[in-house]
Amino acid sequence: MPVQYKDYYETLGVPRGASEADIKKSFRKLARQYHPDVAKDKKRAEEKFKEINEAYEVLSDPEKRKKYDELGANWKSGAEFRPPPGWEGGQQFRGRRGAGQGAEDFEFGGTGFSDFFEQIFGQMRGQRGGFSGFGNYDQESAERGRDVEGDIMVTLDEAAHGSIRTVTVRHGSKNESHQVKIPAGVTEGQRLRIAGRGEHGSGGGQSGDLYLRVRLAKHPDFEVDGHNLVYEAELAPWESVLGTEISVPTLDGHVHIKIPAGTQTGQKLRVRDHGLGKKGDLYVVTKVVVPSKISDDEKKLWEQLKSESKFNPRG
Q: Do 262 and 244 touch, CB atoms closer than 8 A?
């Protein structure tokens, strides 16, 4: 089934040859602009945020980016697209059935990823199980349907507090809606199981299961490490030397933390219970930043400090 082609480079506003650093920089800028927590038009921002995340999910992953680039640079965003013959991967598949049985197609909705993403990067996993029937030679043996797996984009707020999502699955020509519980503390790659909602069995066999694999939405401020969040806090040299108090973001607002005197780049400060679920914390990683431009008066002060200080970083 054809879908609309997604130009991920256009979505992030970068050229096809953009570096990893430029892609990350553009994502962070756009993610801050369209993050639902800060945007006035939350519905539009939420859709835009998903588009930006999907593009970054692909272009920030070397393997996904390579696979995407193999499609070629001549596609126009929004054009009708169908994977080329022999293309590996793709969420949609046609399961083998017994004689006289039709094949089944599977498409997802409400997962946060577009049909285009599912066509190219989705997966179907699992094997048929079941048993052979006895009796008439022409009777079809009972076989369990295959398990079906798709990706679901989960925001960090959902991962921290839990949520209920509605996901639609199209089996052939039939649409089914399922309520999916996102448990607090869910982690990247975790699979959420919906029993009996995979491929239909044949010959009276049971249906397979539906698995939704969690893909945590990228955030402009935080990196994820298991259940923990990591935030990089930039410090001025004098803040690092003398110590200070700064405000840092969390998923529930801002908190103030103390920066001890003599703090170095790369030090970790722990803020308990501000990660994902009950097990998660927030780690603030410090980075000392020096000014790139200074006034003449500032230069004199730095020179005075240089002449009076006994500190030698290589001593």
A: no
